[in-house]
Amino acid sequence: MILITGGCGYLGSHCAINLLERNTEICIVDNFSNSSIEILDKIKSISKKHFKFYQGDVRDKKFINALFLKKNIDAVIHFAGLKSVSESEKDPSEYFSNNITGTINIIELMKLNKINHFIFSSSATVYGNQHPPPWDEKLKLKSPTNPYAKSKFIIEEILRSFVIDNKEFRAGILRYFNPIGAHPSGLLGEEIHSGRNLVPAILNSLIHSDEYLSVYGNDYPTPDGSGIRDYIHVSDLIDGHLKALNYIKTNRGCHVWNLGSGNGYSVLQIIQVFESILKRKINFKFEGRRKGDLPEYWALINKAEKELNWSPRKSINDMVYDILNHLNKTRPNLKILKN
Ligand code: WQD
């Protein structure tokens, strides 16, 4: 059985569905800090499978240990954690507690209970602002400045030491670029109010006709002046997790892989993709650069392609179509998609 922490979140819920569809036994832990109980019904209705759910916090050692004792868990995919860079700057200790303490608890209790397979959600933010793109896993890292990225960087370091002392323990670290997209059923996707990322901001401008999208920066040294990122469909990202889990079953140690599409798209290009599917214009205005943003970055994904036999399948059009299909299903009165 696989434990998915944060299994009601945007990524965790997609992971749960994928595993259930492969008839893998799972149990989910979530404290609903950034998700809701309704997600459980959605996972059930899409997968048509049963699974166990436990409400609780990964920092609660008693709770997690009881779960490990009760269930026959042989791997943990650890999504639980806080994920907003700007929020982390306002409340660093909350980020360190949730992300670092939570992860240390899980791996220590895994060791105690002889559970040896661990997949960890890291982030491209660990590369900081020191390297020109594209970024590969061999780049030297130094501690990033924002607390969110720092929490991921520190956990990566902890995992590298942990496997040296615990030879049977294997860890797969996945550095996410910008996950977007939604489940093809349209039933599950990223919450619109979640954070201040580009996609929720675009959707807000579609929902509220009096609101416009702020495009942060038109003077970056990029072909059109707007920021470039590497967007990856959530289903490709999750596929990478399952392949990483398989890999560590036969390979000891601590391994790290970038999960991105390998391509960069600018904010203006993303807007154009939305407009072409919507068949209408998006209301936007240029604003100054957002503090802390980099001009451009994207991933080199050869390592995951080679070692995991993984490659992203979904195009940027697929990502945007699935996002709009989800919006169309959740807010039918908007009549977002014309056909
Ligand atoms: C993308 C581009 C913005 C909003 C990523 C992850 C995030 C986090 C850190 C995960 C940039 C521009 C955005 C808007 C805009 N954690 N933008 N108007 O900053 O690359 O963050 O790494 O590890 O979850 O997504 O993503 O979506 O905020 O921004 O013009 O209203 O869109 O300036 O160029 P970012 P993002």
Question: Can you give keywords for this protein?
Answer:
single chain, 339 residues, alpha/beta, Rossmann fold, UDP-galactose 4-epimerase, domain 1, 2 domains, seven-stranded parallel β-sheet, two-stranded parallel ribbon, 11 helices, binds UDP-4-deoxy-4-formamido-beta-L-arabinopyranose
Question: Mind explaining what this structure looks like?
Answer:
This protein is of the alpha/beta class and 339 residues long. The chain folds into 2 domains: 208 residues, Rossmann fold; 105 residues, UDP-galactose 4-epimerase, domain 1. Helices cover 41% and strands 17% of the residues. The chain is built from 11 helices and 13 strands. The strands form 4 sheets. It has a 7-stranded parallel β-sheet with strand order 3-2-1-4-5-6-11, with helices on both faces. Strand 5, helix 6 and strand 6 form a beta-alpha-beta unit. The longest helix has 21 residues. It is globular and about 55 Å long. The relative contact order is 0.13. The site of UDP-4-deoxy-4-formamido-beta-L-arabinopyranose has 19 residues, from helix 7 and strand 8.
- Overall pLDDT: 96
Q: What would the CATH topology of the largest domain be?
A: Rossmann fold
- The beta-strand count equals 13
* Total tally of structural domains: 2
The total count of helices amounts to 11
- How much strand content do the residues show? 15-25%
Bound compounds: UDP-4-deoxy-4-formamido-beta-L-arabinopyranose
